């Protein structure tokens, strides 16, 4: 709850010399136009910032998806690759019957 010592904007304008309070206390058409222009500038800057952030996030997500697809393709290549037998790989196992039966 607010305390009872709150002032109206016009009462604060009479007490203080603050130009912002005076601007809000005496609303004329030019004051309303100035406030509207300021609010629109702020909204446009926020909108441009949000659009820039969205583009950056989308690029990062696309890079992540690309790297993940590379990993999946690599896994499938390794999964379905035919294993080489010993003669094809060059490592031949020679059985010597004299020494194997000992």
Order of helices and strands: HHHHH
Shape, please?
rod-shaped
**Which percent range fits the helix content?**
over 70%
Rounded mean pLDDT is 75
Main sheet specs: none
Number of strands: 0
Share of β-strand residues? under 5%
What does it look like?
The protein is mainly alpha-helical and 102 residues long. It has a domain at 27-82. The protein contains five helices and no strands. The protein has helices at 9-15, 19-25, 29-80, 86-89, 97-100. The chain starts with 8 loop residues before the first helix and ends with a helix.
Topology:
Blueprint: H1 9-15, H2 19-25, H3 29-80, H4 86-89, H5 97-100
Helix pairs in contact: 1-2
Task: Give a short overview.
The protein has 102 residues and is mainly α.
Labels describing this entry:
single chain, 102 residues, mainly alpha, rod-shaped
């Amino acid at each position: 709850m607010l305390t009872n010592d709150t002032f109206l904007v016009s009462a604060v304008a009479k007490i203080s010399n603050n130009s912002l309070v005076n601007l809000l206390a005496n609303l004329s058409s030019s004051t309303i136009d100035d406030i509207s222009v300021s609010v629109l500038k702020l909204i446009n800057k926020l909108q441009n910032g949000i659009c820039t952030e969205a583009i950056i996030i989308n690029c990062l997500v696309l890079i992540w998806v690309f790297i993940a697809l590379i990993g999946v393709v690599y896994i499938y290549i390794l999964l379905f690759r035919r294993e080489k037998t010993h003669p094809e790989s060059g490592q031949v196992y020679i059985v010597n019957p004299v020494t194997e039966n000992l």
